[in-house]
């Protein structure tokens, strides 16, 4: 029986040797008890015993039968079960049991061969318990009578070594040996002439003895019948017949026909055939026709079970003479066995970060057929991720050839097809389902590049304003996302500690009430982190916009809302409708429409006299002033914003209707001012008249100076008065080039105790009052017509003003 083909497995690491170049060899006697020591495999493989368990060492046999067992703790290789050499290797001269020691992490293997030594555990056995010979009494001395040799399942010296007759017989001896073609024979040799009349029958034993220690023997009984003359024994046409038969030959097929010839006639020439199969080949697949010698199949043959069958055919004539020939039936293989794929190692699931070249599976392919029918090749279905790599003999590795991505493909179905080279070829396939395990290679991704959330000011603490959301393409803990506020914030971004984010849901809360006027917007960075190792994170900017609410009333800037008396605006009685009396200035800290202000006249001494512009807050005369109008008017202006509900504030104004400026000398705010408003008007008018006279005189003097020569001017008037003028005016006067009148501005308030003059820059050459002055001028100050520069020494103070006494002196000089 042919030895089973053995293959070694392979390691996944390409840089590490896959296997020893020479196998590890042991020997053990057959019939050894279970647990008998074969050898220390860990020591002979140069492996520490601890690695056997750590690397999950195991034994792999091609036929799947575990004849040996590995003790991982000690590394000892022991017999697993009783070993019968004759059952495992039949009559083979050598009997070797081969298997592989497979280790993982990294994948590595060692070939181990155990030679099974024969012991003398079988006795010789004859095919028949008794043999009868019909021998004519006229047989010549030295005639030979062939016998079936004894069979011994043991081999070598334990097989049959000698034959003997017991008890010793004077008529016959035994002869044995091997012919030139290697066939062994056993024959009885006639040593003394037979005499039927003296002894018609005789019996003795033929003993076969093997060479074991102690020796074993087998016996068959020989019965001799002495016959009258039959002097020709049958003779086969061939001593040895050889025939080839296809293993798929059907039942009943004729294998061959043997033929023997007997020259005798009559009954002595009638030949019958019978056969016996060699010992150990029980359940014969053949039968022979006793008359024709035709050998047929009783069942199909199997090349994989037995490649040859040996038959011993005996031809016997009617006189009792016989002859024996050998028939060797050689079974020819046909492609009737599909390849087999046996997986030695398979890694699944496979981490998605496995490098290209990672070994996924190790398997071997085999075909029980022979020749081309047993040559196997392997192929993969269309694959871009995996490939097959021949390892050793008929071992193959399934390896990765490109990077894996679980998020793209979580599972691969890989089909390996094995095909032999027969005609037609037979195929078999094996499917590997390779699951890809997740590694943390994807950071969370927010659903938006940034988030904008809104909250109204004066909000309730811990109010929910929105939520952020991030997804992770990984699975399991690698995809579990938690949210937190990032510790680092850009210095230029407005930020406050009022925001909080729920770590599980990503909901964003405002922890305290906000004030739009203090914080209009805030930016925070929210971080999404997965639970992988190491964790991956992503950041997103969350902008919180505070929405304004109408929680601030308008603030009046002018007139100033202080506790002192309200300022009085001076209105000439000659003012026409539309004259600008004053302007209310207010602001609102809110924004948007909450800060849109409108102005309304709430109360007035004479509501028909004044009007307030709703948008600008300007207070103007609705109609011209009449004599029936009161001199002093009090107004209350309502400033209201556009919020819902609206908020408001009030501004108080006082207006004085003046006919002249004579009353300017009287200090404002005294009791007389309130009791005698006519006196103040008189003073104002007088002051205006005198200022006008001075202006005309100055204009005349200026014109005269322009017409006269410089020397005459010095002689007529002198330049002493110019010393008291400002430096620029003195130089202009000396040069006769003073082009413009020098103007003053009067500021009168009811709240001040003195009226003051303020020096202004020179105006244009026109002597007519400016239009803006006629229209009423600024609300805070009333501008009066320019007057000529006085010759009297009037020195303004640091603020550029002159006192009322100086102005009075000026007016009446």
From TrEMBL:
Q: TM spans, by residue? A: 683-704
Do you know which SUPFAM superfamilies this protein is assigned to?
Answer: Cadherin-like
Stated name of the protein: Protocadherin beta-15-like isoform X3
Task: Name one process (GO BP) from the record.
Answer: homophilic cell adhesion via plasma membrane adhesion molecules
Provide the topology term for how it sits in the membrane. Answer: Single-pass type I membrane protein
Gene3D superfamilies for this protein: Cadherins (2.60.40.60)
Subcellular localization(s) per the UniProt record:
Cell membrane
- Keyword check for Signal, yes or no: yes
Any one GO molecular-function label of the UniProt entry: calcium ion binding
Q: Which residues form the Cadherin domain?
A: 20-126, 127-236, 237-341, 342-446, 447-556, 571-673
Q: Which UniProt keywords apply?
A: Calcium, Cell adhesion, Cell membrane, Glycoprotein, Membrane, Repeat, Signal, Transmembrane, Transmembrane helix
């Amino acid at each position: 029986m042919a030895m089973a083909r053995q293959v070694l497995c392979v390691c996944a690491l390409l840089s590490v040797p896959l296997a020893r170049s020479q196998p590890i060899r042991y020997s053990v006697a057959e019939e050894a008890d279970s647990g008998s020591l074969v050898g220390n495999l860990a020591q002979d493989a140069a492996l520490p015993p601890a690695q056997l368990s750590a690397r999950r060492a195991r034994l792999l046999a091609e036929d799947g039968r575990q004849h040996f067992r590995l003790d991982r703790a000690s590394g000892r290789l022991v017999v697993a079960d009783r070993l019968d050499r004759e059952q495992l290797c039949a009559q083979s001269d050598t009997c070797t049991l081969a298997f592989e020691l497979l280790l993982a992490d990294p994948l590595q293997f060692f070939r181990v061969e155990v030679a099974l030594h024969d012991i003398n555990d079988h006795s010789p056995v004859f095919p028949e318990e008794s043999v009868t010979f019909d021998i004519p009494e006229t047989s010549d001395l030295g005639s030979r009578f062939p016998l079936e040799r004894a069979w011994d399942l043991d081999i070598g010296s334990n097989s049959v070594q000698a034959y003997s007759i017991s008890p010793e017989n004077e008529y016959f001896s035994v002869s044995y040996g091997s012919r030139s073609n290697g066939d062994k024979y056993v024959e009885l040799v006639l040593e003394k002439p037979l005499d039927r009349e003296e002894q018609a029958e005789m019996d003795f034993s033929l003993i076969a003895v093997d060479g074991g220690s102690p020796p074993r023997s087998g016996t068959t009984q020989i019965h001799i019948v002495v016959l009258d003359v039959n002097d020709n024994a049958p003779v086969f046409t061939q001593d040895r017949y050889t025939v080839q038969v296809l293993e798929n030959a059907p039942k009943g097929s004729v294998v061959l026909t043997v033929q023997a010839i007997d020259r005798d006639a009559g009954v002595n020439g009638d030949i019958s055939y019978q056969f016996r199969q060699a010992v150990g080949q029980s359940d014969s697949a053949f039968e022979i026709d006793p008359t024709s010698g035709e050998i047929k199949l009783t069942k199909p043959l199997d090349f994989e079970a037995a490649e040859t069958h040996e038959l011993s055919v005996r031809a016997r004539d009617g006189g009792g003479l016989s002859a024996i020939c050998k028939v060797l039936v050689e079974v020819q293989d046909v492609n009737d066995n599909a390849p087999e794929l046996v997986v030695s190692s398979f890694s699944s699931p496979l981490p998605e970060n496995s490098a290209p070249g990672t070994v996924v599976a190790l398997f071997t392919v085999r075909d029980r057929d022979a020749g081309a029918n047993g040559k196997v090749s392997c192929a993969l279905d269309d694959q871009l991720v995996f490939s097959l790599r021949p390892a050793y003999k008929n071992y193959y590795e399934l390896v990765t050839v490109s990077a894996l991505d679980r998020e793209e493909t979580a599972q691969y179905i890989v089909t390996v097809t094995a095909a032999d080279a027969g005609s037609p070829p037979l195929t078999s396939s094996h499917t590997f389902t390779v699951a890809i395990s997740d590694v943390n290679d994807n950071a969370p991704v927010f659903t938006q590049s940034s988030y904008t959330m809104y909250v109204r000011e004066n909000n309730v603490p811990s109010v929910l304003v929105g939520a952020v959301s991030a997804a992770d393409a990984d699975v399991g803990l690698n995809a579990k996302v938690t949210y937190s506020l990032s510790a680092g914030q850009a210095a230029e971004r407005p930020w406050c500690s009022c925001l909080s984010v729920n770590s599980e849901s990503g909901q964003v809360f405002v922890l305290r009430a906000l004030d739009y006027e203090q914080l209009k917007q805030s930016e925070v960075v929210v971080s999404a982190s997965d639970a992988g190792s190491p964790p991956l994170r992503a950041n997103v900017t969350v902008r919180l916009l505070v929405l304004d609410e109408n929680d601030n009333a308008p603030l009046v800037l002018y007139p100033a809302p202080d506790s002192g008396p309200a300022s009085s605006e001076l209105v000439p009685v000659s003012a026409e409708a539309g004259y600008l009396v004053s302007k209310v200035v207010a602001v609102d800290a809110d924004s948007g429409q909450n800060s849109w202000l409108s102005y309304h006249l709430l109360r007035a001494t004479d509501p028909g006299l004044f009007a307030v512009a709703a948008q600008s807050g300007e207070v103007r005369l609705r109609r011209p002033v009449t004599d029936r109008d009161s001199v002093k008017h009090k107004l209350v202006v309502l400033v209201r914003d556009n919020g819902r509900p609206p908020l408001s504030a009030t501004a108080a104004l006082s207006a004085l209707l003046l006919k002249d400026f004579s009353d300017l000398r009287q200090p404002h705010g005294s009791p007389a001012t309130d009791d005698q408003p006519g006196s103040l008007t008189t003073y104002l008018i007088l002051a205006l008249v005198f200022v006008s006279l001075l202006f005309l005189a100055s204009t005349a003097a200026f014109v005269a100076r322009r017409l006269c020569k410089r020397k005459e001017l010095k002689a007529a008037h002198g330049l002493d008065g110019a010393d008291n003028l400002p430096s620029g005016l003195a130089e202009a006067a000396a040069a006769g080039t003073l082009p413009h009148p020098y103007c003053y501005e009067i500021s009168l308030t009811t709240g001040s105790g003195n009226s003051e003059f303020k020096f202004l820059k020179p105006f244009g050459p026109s002597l007519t009052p400016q239009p803006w002055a006629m229209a009423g001028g600024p609300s805070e100050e009333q501008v009066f017509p320019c007057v000529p520069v006085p010759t009297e020494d009037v020195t303004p103070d640091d603020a550029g003003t002159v006192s009322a006494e100086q102005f009075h002196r000026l007016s009446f000089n």
